[in-house]
Specification:
The complex is a heterodimer. By secondary structure, chain A is α/β, with parallel strands linked by helices. Chain A is built from seven helices and five strands; from the N terminus they run H-H-E-H-E-H-E-H-E-H-E-H. The longest helix of chain A is centred in the N-terminal third of the chain and has 21 residues. In chain B, helix 1 packs antiparallel against helix 3, helix 1 packs across helix 5 and helix 2 crosses helix 3. The chains are: A alpha/beta, B mainly alpha.
Chain lengths: 169, 146
């Protein structure tokens, strides 16, 4: 009975080949994505949005350790969470641009912040895709310098950093 | 009977993993975000996983579908599922809340799947994988005396 569950050497080898083949296919198809993630950490180079390539353009991540430097360089923090959560607490100096209301607020946003403004978007931490989605949207709208702070609000709070409260202006 | 059950399990697994692989593979960036939510890998490695894992699932699913190299495919799925379950248990142990109450649910499957439910689902898949493995062995042994 026990040999029922013991894979033969041949099966093990074939399984290994299977994984290698599939992984290579995945890697070659997503080569640019992976290379960007491994090499481009801090640099976002996005050419002017053209319709055909918009889908492949995505914001690159920024680590907690880099945030303070970037803020002193003039990056703008953008909070992608719901406005009522923003009002309870947000990162100091952040402006509110909830993903759910981006269509309504976008005009006012572009009027206030020129396209060359470097942006750092965050939302509710690693489980929250809103900052990514907002980043993709902003890049498509012509903001070339967009990064995402994935640790987001929870990481900032858990590190005991200062928070602000109050409604978005 | 055995044959019918074998084909049912095989096709069930094929369907599940082709579907899962397709969902994740078509949106690697979103999937990388979901992997990052587990906070177990260094940042860029989430992308490596997102770039490769869906294709492994897809290939296994397709092999099961066409009934070729079934045992290697099952073995790989067993390995993947084990990793998934370990990740989910670590999530529960660390008390990480992956649900974020965001505007968009995390990915197509929605944010409604709690880690407990996902663990249960993976356990179910594990049982199907085992059953398929055993049935496959029985079927290949019976007629030829292997």
């Amino acid at each position: 009975m026990s040999d029922l569950f013991r894979p033969s050497r041949r099966v093990l080898l074939e399984a290994l080949v299977l994984v290698l083949v599939a992984a290579s296919a995945g890697l070659s198809l997503n080569y640019t994505l992976v290379m960007k993630a491994f090499t481009g950490r801090n640099v976002v180079i996005v050419p002017q949005a053209s319709k055909s390539t918009v889908e492949s353009q995505f914001p690159l991540p920024v680590d907690y350790e880099e945030i303070d430097n970037l803020l002193t360089e003039g990056h703008l923090l953008v909070d992608a969470r719901d406005p009522h959560i923003f009002a309870e607490a947000h990162l100091p100096g952040a402006i509110s641009l909830p993903l759910g209301e981006v269509d309504l607020l976008f005009e006012a946003f572009t009027a206030r912040y020129p396209k060359e403004t470097p942006l750092i978007i965050y939302c509710n931490g690693f489980g929250c895709p809103d900052s990514f989605d907002l980043g993709v949207r902003l890049i498509a709208e012509g903001y070339p310098k967009v990064q995402v702070y994935e640790g987001g609000f929870p990481e900032w709070r858990d590190r005991g950093r200062l928070l602000e409260s109050g409604e978005a202006q | 009977m055995t044959r019918g059950l074998y084909h049912f399990c095989r096709l069930l697994l094929a369907g599940v993993f082709i579907y899962a692989g397709y969902l994740k593979g078509s949106e690697p960036v979103a999937f990388a975000g979901q992997v990052a939510a587990y906070q177990v890998l260094p940042y860029a490695f989430n992308y490596l996983v997102a770039a490769t894992l869906p294709f492994v699932e897809l290939l296994c699913g397709v092999l099961l579908l066409i009934n070729q190299k079934v045992r290697p495919a099952l073995l790989v799925l067993f390995g993947l599922n084990t990793v998934f379950m370990i990740a989910l248990v670590s999530l529960l142990l660390r008390g990480l809340d992956i649900d974020c109450g965001c505007f968009h649910p995390a990915g197509e499957e929605g944010s409604g799947t709690s880690p407990q439910m996902a663990l249960l689902r993976d356990l179910g898949l594990m049982i199907v994988i085992f059953v398929t493995w055993v049935l496959r062995l029985q079927l290949t042994r019976e007629p030829t005396d292997g």
